[in-house]
Amino acid sequence: MNPIDYELVFDIERSGYQGWWGWAHGLLMIAFGVCVLLNRDRLARSRHPRFALAFSVGWLILAVLFTIVGNGVNYSQYARLRDARAAHTYSVVEGRVEDLEAMPHGGHMESFVVGDTRFRCAEYETASSFHDTTSQGSPIREGLQVRIGHVGGEIVTLEIARGHHPASARRRPDDKPR
Description:
Elements: E1 6-11, H1 12-15, H2 20-38, H3 40-44, H4 49-86, E2 91-101, E3 110-114, E4 117-121, E5 145-151, E6 154-161
Antiparallel strand pairs: 1-6, 2-3, 2-5, 3-4, 5-6
Helix pairs in contact: 2-4
């Protein structure tokens, strides 16, 4: 039997961290909080200065917590997966895609099975692992021959058998996931 020749279509090491928008959003919230804090007297029109102070300080504290905790968790997930990929401490499953439950456009999640492992992908997920759905142009199709590197079901590499994938799968591994 001839070995199957695969083409790499996703690699977490090459795609990089996808969550920078979250840090930018958090910094905008912090900047807004600083502006409100610095202009609280003018905004309160001297009627409720303690409320203006409490609101502006509360907003600023929540913005800082959101930015550090929320984005820190997201980045640590990426770093964990990237490090597992670099150290080759991830599992590999190879076979045909089965039981594809494609997500309807505007839905929440789709899933599929390769070998004995079920994978889930969500269109609006902030994960750095592969998470494209068929409605976003994912190359995953029922019956497709694939080799997937994963850490607990989170995809760090996706390879598709050459000559067996749709044109939408012909991305370079350094392309950013959508």
